[in-house]
Design a protein that fits this description.
By secondary structure, this protein is of the alpha+beta class. It has 3 helices and 8 strands. The chain has helices at 11-28, 36-89, 96-101; strands at 118-124, 130-135, 144-150, 157-162, 166-169, 178-186, 189-190, 197-199. Helix 1 packs antiparallel against helix 2 (36-89).
């Protein structure tokens, strides 16, 4: 006959198993040929684990309460500190040295002027589209782009607005001269136009690209 003694993985179930063994051992250790020191060892092993488990559970509850208290105090502290920061910002006695000591730093610098984009290029495709690309120059993230087109290089009309530094014109007829230029725009400020790029310029030949 194969005998099996399994200690469950969960701590609470393992504690119950230990206590079951302790009780059974206490009732039968003499009949099994063990003596009192053996009984003491079994009792100590079972009780030490059970007591340790109870202490651990209490510690978990205490830790959870401590974390909750910490979060509450952080929220309360944030309200108080921000109130004082707001009052100090408007205080004429707050010198740069004092502000630095308090950890109050200057606001980030301006995003800079809105300037025309650079390196505008236009690549026509055989299917009648044209990909216009440019570089943002020193314009910051968040700048939008106004794409303009002209059939004669003098009368410019609005074509599209793009949030990316490229645009595909779907109405670029193969063989028809067309020019493109781009303006940068941010916070209702619009730059001067960029240099222009022209497709099918008079007297030039082009190898049409297959649209991707």
């Amino acid at each position: 006959m194969i005998l099996k003694f399994t200690i469950p993985a969960p701590d609470a179930a393992a504690s119950d198993k230990f206590q079951q063994f302790k009780t059974g051992f206490a009732a039968n250790f003499g009949a099994l040929g063990f003596d009192v020191p053996d009984l003491d060892a079994v009792i100590a092993a079972a009780n030490d684990f059970t007591n340790g488990l109870a202490a651990s559970e209490l510690a978990k509850v205490a830790a959870q309460n401590a974390v909750q208290l910490k979060d509450t105090k952080r929220e309360e502290g944030t309200v108080t500190i921000r109130d004082y920061v707001s009052r100090i910002k408007g205080n004429p006695a707050a010198t740069p040295a004092i502000l630095t000591a308090l950890g109050i730093t200057p606001a980030s610098a301006s995003a800079g002027p809105v300037v025309p984009p650079i390196e505008v290029s236009a690549t026509p495709n055989a299917n009648g589209t044209c990909k216009v690309k440019w570089k943002r120059s020193t314009n910051s993230v968040g700048t939008t782009w106004i794409v303009e087109s002209s059939l004669d290089g003098s009368a410019w009309t609005f074509l599209a607005t793009s949030s990316r530094t490229n645009y595909v014109d779907t109405a670029a007829a193969p063989g028809v001269t067309k020019s493109y230029r781009v303006r940068a725009q941010r916070k209702n400020v619009t730059s001067a136009p960029s240099a222009s790029a022209t497709i099918y310029d008079a007297g030039e030949s082009f190898n049409l690209q297959l649209a991707a």
